[in-house]
Amino acid sequence: MLRIHPRASSRMLVAMTTDGDVLLRLAGEIDDLGARLARVGTELRTVRSEAEPKPEEAPEQAPQEQPAAQQTEPPAARQAEQPQEPHQAPPQQPQPAPQPQVPPQQQPRYFTHPQQAQYQQAQYQQAQYAQWQQQYRQQYQQQPYRQHYQPAPKVTLAEKLSKEGAGSRLLAWVGGAVTLLGVVLFLVLAIQRGWFGPLPRVIGGAVLGAALVGIGLRLHRNPAGRTGAFALAATGIGALYLDAIAATTMYEYLPAYAGLALGLLIAVGGLLLAVRWKSSLLAAAVVLGCVVCAPIITQGFTPELVAFLLVVQLASTPVQLRQSWPSVAVAAGIPPLVASVFSTAFTGFGGSPANTAAALAAGGAGLVLALIVTLKRSGDAAALALLAVAPAPSLLAALFLPKTPAVLVTASVALVLLGVWAAGQWLDGWTGDLAGAAGLLAALQTTMTLFDGSARSAILIGEGVLLALVALWTKKHVALAGGVVFAVIGGLIALAFDVPPTLFFLIRNRPDADLAAALLVAVAILAVAITLPWVAHRLGMFKAPSENVVPWLFAGVVALYGAGAMVLCGALLAVPGRSGFLLGHVVITVSWTVAALVLLIRGISVVGLRVIGLVLVGAAVLKLVLFDLSALDGLARVAAFLLAGLVLLGAGTRYAKLVASR
Length: 662
Known about the structure:
Blueprint: H1 6-15, H2 21-51, H3 68-71, H4 75-81, H5 117-142, H6 157-162, H7 166-193, H8 198-219, H9 226-250, H10 256-277, H11 280-292, H12 294-297, H13 303-322, H14 326-347, H15 353-376, H16 381-389, H17 392-399, H18 403-422, H19 431-450, H20 454-474, H21 477-498, H22 512-538, H23 549-574, H24 578-602, H25 607-631, H26 635-661
């Protein structure tokens, strides 16, 4: 039989304290089990000793309860102290040879008597263990408990459909959707064939919707009929909302503000009923029922449709703040944006004030709702998605507008979003970064719309430099990424129109204004080629040139291109024609060698500068051999080779002295 001593079990449990109260309860149960096993073992030995046969010559038994000191004495000593009985055999009988007495092995005893010292010691240890257990529990409860998130197991569609009652729920919701669609088709058919009249149609739709809601309320009292209650209530609320849209847009019984107010009341009532019944499915069904069938009533995607969908979104705001129902946020937030996009596409070029206002309202409502939800629930995926796509309708509508209104729309969107980005210190998670990215996109569209020609590329590259400095100041990588995007787009436009590669190979007569603009673009290219890698290195995104050569080499090539274009455009402005072209190339070659000398001198203690200087020396030599030798002629060729050679010779001599003096 396995024996577990209380002291040993307590020592084992002292080390196992990693799981808190569970291990503590387990320790107590094991201690109780050990004590019970000890008592059972003692009782079994007592019963066995009483059941054994007693010989006639056996001596008197010792009393059952002996002091602890006597229990520990060896058996031989106890036998010697016992008196001889008078009926024992006479001593004259022959005795067998004395056998060596081997004392039996002493079995471990379990002390259960309250007066025994071992029992008192065990009780004292148990009391100490209980006190330690209580102290540990208090300390453990005071520490913050971090519950690790365990994702719920995914339930497949087949498992959902196989559950009991799934078929009835599916039939109820499908029936509600078909009923709502039937109401819409009936209204359309009644209009086409002239049945009844406008007023009876509106009254009939209202009566039907109210009846369905009433039946749903009655069925909800019985738990067995709640599935049908949800479907009927959603269908009735959708019918009432569509009836309000028809009364406003089709029959014009209600002015626009009254129809919107009535639609708001109906949507709020339906969503409050969903909150009362604690059903996210009912809330989503109410929103979708009002959204899906509305374009049929308004006969297409119009600004009026966008307004009614915004009413549904406004009505769902309190529900989204009170309940964490992402399905409701998506069902209410995305449809106004989609409807606004389609409305803009159907309106066409030139736009309209109503469509532009609807697009701005849809984007503004989506932005405000997303910010409110993210302030309450940081990292809400539905709110972040709504924030990312909220500016889309306004920016798309601006593409169809004339230049001035388009700039006003995109600039307003950019200012609002960049303001949200600037207030990112009060926002959590990705909210500020998403707003900043959307604001930079709006600013890019504003620049592309407002400027054209050489000014467009220069402004874009200049904005790239400005964003790089903002990233250095604010430590935000989104600003640096935006600066790279602006610089790349502006650089591609400059390569195509302002400073093309043919500038270095072909002699063309260009107006002074174009040359001045190209000079400005070249200066911007040189500035952005220096600023972007430097800021990226300061922010820890780029390693030193000695550790990561590729990005620095690319930035160096861009800087050389910008510097060469700047020198060549300046030379053409100073000396027009072929003479200016040759002079510019001579200055480019000499300037490269001078820059290489400066970098080598400064790079004696800096490995990166030394590497860049050596690369620049190689580039200057290649230009001399591959381009200047064939493209230049006469005095220009001689000047390029003499000046570059003298500079390189002086650089080598000076550099050797500096290296030797270290």
